[in-house]
Amino acid sequence: MSDGDRATHPGPLARLRVIDLTHVMAGPTCTLMLADIGADVIKIEKLPGGDDTRHTVPPKIGDEAASFLMMNRNKRGIVLDLKTTGGKKVLRRLIASADVLVENFAPGAMERLGFGYAELHEAFPALIYCSLSGFGRTGPYSHRRGFDLMAQAMSGIMSFTGERPDGPPVKCGPPLSDITAGILASMGILAAYSHRLKTGEGQWVETSLYEAALVQTYWQSTIALAAGTAPRAMGSAHPLNAPYQAFEASDGWLVVGGASRKHWPLMLEALGAPELASDPRFVNGADRMANLKELEAELNERFRGNTRAHWLAALDAKGVPCGPVHDMLEALDDPQTLARDMVVEVEHTTLGPVKTIGLPVKFSETPGSVRHGAPVYGEHTKEVLRQHGFDDAEIAAFEKEGAVFAAQGAE
Question: Are residues 134 and 13 part of one domain?
């Protein structure tokens, strides 16, 4: 497939229509995954104000919040007030022609609006209805609102993140549970879509930030369930293998995966420290974990004796997994990042070319693509309403009622 074909191919989810009733991070991550691989995602924003990420500033690019631009490219945007008669009428008609609905409203909100799963499943039995929430739709916390901070805390993640076991709880830098929940939800939607293709049946798919955080603890949960002990913070070290962590060279930090039986002796050769292989404290993985502090001291002393570039070249020559610790600007400018099209430019209606993160999944025959930028507030309201059979007089009546908002000049 040529580069030109790749740029214009609609992707494997072409013709899948998704109604996106989500905001901020977890839900928009889910619909972003679907949009990037070809789905027609219609993002419905609230009136007034729109998605909260429109107001998460700084930074801004022109007049638009950079956070909104990142999470909502490849989506068409309309604005509805779902508390109005007109807004409800519009949404119901959109749902009638949709394959998937995704929502992350507060528990009970969709039911109060008249768009809960039970009601919509009766009317549209083929609809795939996906809900993302803080804690899930069952259990003693189902009524609670949830955010990434709570999920990271309650899942245990903050108890084993940080530099030392007696240190304060530390949150992972990225919104781990939000992004993971969005990816899990998109996976669930595609599984439900596979089922529907075979049976014609829709269903309710749901996940939560809490569960998304818990699945990030596989190694730490393994220790807790098998040994009955709660893992604590270890800095960059691994809870089960050593050495597998960051080390400081004379001019910067690097990470090394030298824990396996294959890589441990090769790492020592690269370091010029073959004598450590026979040190009784470090003979095998269990020994090295039992004497981790002593191992770190021995290795740190050697790594500080030369530059990061020297050690990366020496380790790479021996086939030992390693890499520099980048800041975000360095990561985005890394040649591997660029070679994998993980930073791309997308055309925005008012801003022109805007840089964004690329697609992390590649397809040989039906590649996804970043086709257009995030919508201006109300950019596609009239377009989508006309596509769903509303004429200009009806649209004008909706605008007068305050049920919809259309961007000025957007036709």
Answer: yes
Residue 224 near residue 231 (C-beta atoms within 8 A): yes
pLDDT tens, residue by residue, 138-196: 999 999 999 999 999 999 999 999 999 999 999 999 999 999 999 999 999 999 999 99
Please check the confidence at residue 6 and state whether its pLDDT lies above 50. Answer: no
Last residue of a domain, one of 330, 359, 378: 330
Task: Identify the sign of the CA torsion 265, 318, 338, 247.
Answer: positive
Catalytic site includes residue 178: yes
User: How many domains, in total, are found in the chain?
Assistant: 2
For residue range 362-372, list pLDDT tens digits in order: 999 999 999 99
The predicted-structure confidence for 57-108, as pLDDT tens digits, reads as follows 999 999 999 999 999 999 999 999 999 999 999 999 999 999 999 999 999 9
Determine the Cα–Cα distance for residues 98 and 202; give it in Å rounded to an integer: 11
Neighbours of 388 (CB within 10 A): 14
Predicted local confidence at residue 10, as pLDDT? 77
pTM: 0.94
Domain that includes residue 89, residue range: 3-216+334-405
pLDDT at residue 8, rounded to an integer: 55
Q: Are residues 67 and 208 in the same domain?
A: yes
Specify the pLDDT at position 3: 44
Give the residue from 113, 50, 104 showing the smallest Cα distance to 84: 113
Cα 261 to Cα 84, 241, 280: the distances in Å are 66, 11, 15
From the candidates 3, 178, 327, 392, give the one annotated as an active-site residue: 178
